[in-house]
Predict the 3D structure of the following.
Amino acid sequence: MKRALITGTAGFIGFHLARALLDQGWQVQGFDGFTDYYDVRLKERRHQMLLQSPGFAETRARLEDAEAVMACARGFGPDVIIHLAAQAGVRYSLEDPRAYVDANVTGTFNVMEAARELGVEHLMMASTSSVYGANTEMPYAETHKADHPLTIYAATKKATEAMAHAYAHLHRLPTTMFRFFTVYGPWGRPDMALFKFTRGILEGTPIDIYNHGHMHRDFTYIDDLVAGLVALTGIVPDQVEGREGPGIEGDTLSPAAPYRIVNIGNSEPVRLLDFVEAIEEATGRKAVRNLMEIQPGDVPKTWADAGLLEALTGARPRTDFRTGVGRFVAWYRDYYGV
Ligand SMILES: NC(=O)c1ccc[n+]([C@@H]2O[C@H](COP(=O)([O-])OP(=O)(O)OC[C@H]3O[C@@H](n4cnc5c(N)ncnc54)[C@H](O)[C@@H]3O)[C@@H](O)[C@H]2O)c1
């Protein structure tokens, strides 16, 4: 039976991933600090659900606490570490940049140290499409340079990619970094557009639409993302020595380390106004639109090249955004009883 230490299990993506691995018979150790960046009750509810599974155990601690991270990892003895806990959110990184450096840089380093000491089979860590920053070449491919981050959030994630490469090289620590593209779905994050728009539309309050709606996002449905993550647990980057064959076109496998970067995105950018219309359809109500300027650090468009993910796993995200939005709205109404 495989054992995964997952950080961020009280969070949106970690919760769904933990559920999927538990369903497949994995033992899962969750690690989460229950930060108050958004409604902690949602995090409590997610963990309550996970704790119903006998295969799940929790540690409540901060990533910045190196001893707590190490003790949790030592006590559990994972085969795989999947590091998802982070200070997330592009906009909040303008308000409190230090929270990002602490959680994402120091915190990620503590997870890497635990992975190194335990010599895990595979270290998997979340990065973000935000690292493509000011790039204009679309779709965003992992082989493109990503040297121009526009926010401290993106910069801290880019830093973790570099740190992880060094540890993969120095300690032969097989590492996969994921660049996620705007993930959405049931149990989603209250600071993200879909949640805020749905709440505003159902309450009849105005919703802020940035860049006058001239934004595109490559919205990725949570179940598709989780399927990609589960498949990639078993696709461990090779040792450098003895690599043979032509390899996969567009692969990011490092020449110096058992390390690769994989985009996980839908590869189908959606216009923000079409997204709002889908929420209107699903709720049966009209939005009060408050059209606003683009916000500092925002990029007008994201678009994933998902070719590498598909080449590695045989699949890529395909859920249509109207279907996904419908499922989110159904969950939201049920959860909040509205
Ligand atoms: N949701 C998206 O669209 C998206 C897109 C790109 C990248 N990501 C990345 O995916 C990962 C998961 O994101 P999510 O959407 O599930 O976010 P989330 O905020 O719902 O989950 C993150 C979890 O980490 C925990 N956490 C935060 N800081 C911590 C700390 N210092 N110590 C211990 N625990 C801490 C939080 O309590 C939370 O439960 C993050 O690394 C995020 O940067 C998400």
In short: Residues 8, 10-14, 32-35, 43, 62-64, 84-88, 103, 107, 126, 128, 180, 182-183, 189 surround nicotinamide-adenine-dinucleotide (CB under 6 Å). The radius of gyration is 19 Å. The first strand starts at residue 3 and ends at 7.
